[in-house]
Write a structure and sequence with these properties.
435 residues; mainly alpha; two-stranded antiparallel ribbon; disordered C terminus
Length: 435
Amino acid sequence: MDLPVIARRLRTRVTPRPVWAMPAATVGVLLIGFALQLLVYGNGGHSSLSDLPHLVLGRGIGPDALPYLDRPLEYPVGSGLLFYLATLVTTSPLGVLIVTAVAATATCVVITVALERRVGARAWRWAVGTPVLLFAFQNWDVFAIAAMVFGILAFDRGNSSRAGVWLGVGAFVKLFPAFVIPPLVISRWARGDRRGAVRLAGAGAVTFAVLNLPVLVANPSGWWYPLDFQSQRQTTWGTVWHYGFRIVGAPVSGTAGSHFANAVCLVALVIGLGWLSIVAVRRRLEPFPIAAVAVAVFVLTNKVYSPTYDVWLVPFFVLLAVPRRVWVGFCAVDLAIYVLVFGYFHGLTSRDEVHMLLPVFVFVRAALLVALVVIAVRPGSRPESSGSTPVLDGDPAAERRDRGGVETDRPPVDAEGRTQEGDGQLVDRRKRLLR
């Protein structure tokens, strides 16, 4: 083989992908998503795909009316804070949607960059995923997702304290990142890193408490309102519980229905997280599959379903080696439910069509989430190595970790792409590519 051919092949193999391609695609997808929002928006915000205009019109929150203190709000305090900050910029329903959409777009791009750095090309699933297109501007989910992703990545690098802080921030905005913490704590404790387990649990609890404390102290009933609101809800028609309870003759409406659903779903959640913790210890699962199963269990055992919940799971289709057919199926069902449910809200689909098709989609979606759980707990679910070696907080070598909380055992690399090994002899890495 002559040298020009070798040189061309070498350039092909070492030339990196454009760093802007995936973030640019994310922005493009979100522009399409916002165009869809504007297409439906009308009647001063009364007609809207996003929850935000409806909340502006219905809750009366603004610069002179604080959420939880002056006005009740059924979302966690972090979501209320983001809502209030948007109203400081503008109080119009469309304006709040635009301000939140701009912040959500920036957040989605940051998530794209973080995922691409960790797993490479599979991050396209987030960048152009159907749930991101449809639900990035629904309310404040992407902000909680960002905190959850940063927390999981920090934990994977061995930084338990930073992971706890990020997961606590995520739970401050939306509750679901909190359910990632217990199985991660148990897993780390079982591996002998008790210091790391305590740091994770402590940092998460302290962060969540400190962020919530001002509202809790100022108005306990206002802080408690989101939990009270959720506890009074019955099973929704987007959950398997709704249809299962009807089949066995259990109550599905009224106070009896909400109390029954609370008890059953809470027990199911505890059992699910307990099972996950046992499996995580026995199979020595890595952080990504543990987090994926925790969120999937929370969604599956929840008595309430919103199509928006699908976007919570998208990062795990990136972080885990989920087969393409499962990913495509998930996106297809997500799109089908979106068209059916939001079409019904806006007069495009009939109630009979919803009653006939939605149960099918709900059970298919549940089956896909179960498939995700099975894939996560089986060997080989961890993504390709990023070239870093995670370090437990209790490891003495943690003192030598880099700024990202990672200790690497790779030899140093000089400016020419050569590694220095053993006795200091420089070995040209490009020669290895020719083997």
